[in-house]
Amino acid sequence: MKVISSYNGTDAAARTYQLLSRGAELMSACVEGIVLVEDDPDELSVGYGGLPNSEGIVELDAGVMHGPTHRVGAVAALRNIRNPSRVALRVLEKTSRVLLVGDGALKFALAEGFVEENLLAEKARKIWEYWRGCTPEMWNAAAIVGAGRVDPRAEPGAMTSGIDREVAAYVATHSQRPAGTVHLAALDAHGDMACVTSTSGHAFKPPGRVGDTPIAGAGFYCDNTVGTCGSLGHGESNLRNCTSFFAVDLMRRGVPPLEAGLEALRQIMTRAPAFDLDANGRPISDVRLYLLTADGRHAGVSLLPGNRMVVSDEMGTRFEPCVALFYS
Ligand code: GLY
Q: 122 falls in which pLDDT band (50, 70, 90)?
């Protein structure tokens, strides 16, 4: 038995592993783990407290896939419901559909007894307010303040004065269009597999923008006889390349999970449009993949260095490093 997740899913992986150890049903154990992340207002890329779209409205995406039945449930651009993964699971369980979006997804959730609420938590609201009136130069200046450094180019007090401490701390570690997300996959005691991905998407995205997270084959995929793959990062890269399906298909052909993940990232780079690359041909945004095989092997890979994944098994819950395609 094993559970893996993205770096921000420590509690989620531990919870799912605990539920599975007690004999809980596989798919709902995965979702109940992810719900911990969706409920956390300090996780700015998922669920309640996620950063909003350009108009200040939080729009959530999530997808779940159940290996034994090869069924998928997903929701996209869902507003006012804090746990899109639970709604996605309900789509899987209660309908013959795969993906509901926008108003239709909200209507479905309400009919299923979910309750509407304002998802724009205070910290996310402050960061959005700052972003709204911000030029790239101001964002960079605030990042310097947040990192506790003095910008030698800044006029005393210019641009950076009066920036909220939480906003500055956030800006110091994020680009002006940051992405987040959480992914979790599990292999249970019966050898069955499932996975979930949930996100508030790119911060400050255009209303209605949907990334890879709720799209089976892009942001998540599960083949019960082979393994799973799920992703964080630049959704458009995964949408263009069906990355999660591609990686699982490589594993189906016998490629080990680490190599399958790296090969999927190489494919993204080979096909990357110029606007996704910097002047040196390196990716501007990261893509991270988390892979788990039906025989219990796992790997985490990323375009850019410095990433970790979470693993829960009989040895406990721990971080392990991801292997990067690009170093330095
Ligand atoms: N990977 C999350 C997104 O692009 O929305």
A: very high
**How far, in Å, is the centroid of ligand 1 from the Cα of 236?**
7
Q: Whole-prediction pTM value?
A: 0.92
- Per-residue pLDDT tens digits for 127-172: 999 888 887 777 776 666 666 554 444 444 444 456 787 887 787 7
| Residue in 10, 16, 160, 181 annotated catalytic | 181
Which phi and psi (to 5°) does residue 55 adopt?
-95, 10
**Residues 6 or more apart whose Cβ sits within 8 Å of residue 257:** 227, 251, 291, 292, 293, 297, 298, 299
User: What single-letter amino acid sits at 64?
Assistant: V
Q: How many CB atoms are closer than 10 A to CB 136?
A: 9
Q: Which atom of ligand 1 is nearest to the CA of 181?
A: 2
- Considering Cα of 318, then 324, then 327, then 328, what sign does the dihedral take? negative
Domains and their CATH numbers in the chain: 2-118+177-323 (3.60.20.30), 122-171 (no CATH)
Give which of 279, 257, 270, 254 is closest to 303, Cα–Cα: 270
Contacts of 305 (CB under 8 A, 6+ apart): 324, 326, 327, 328
d(CA 284, CA 272): 11
Instruction: Tell me the per-residue pLDDT of 46-73, one tens digit each, with 9 for 90 and over.
Output: 999 999 999 999 999 999 999 999 999 9
Are the C-beta atoms of residues 36 and 11 closer than 8 Å to each other?
yes
Checking phi first, is residue 46 left (phi over 0); if not, alpha (psi -120 to 50) or beta?
beta
Instruction: Pick the residue whose CA is nearest to atom 5 on ligand 1.
Output: 201
The pLDDT of residue 76 is 98
The side-by-side arrangement of strands in the sheet containing 220-223 is: 220-223, 227-233, 287-293, 298-302, 323-324
pLDDT at 179: 62
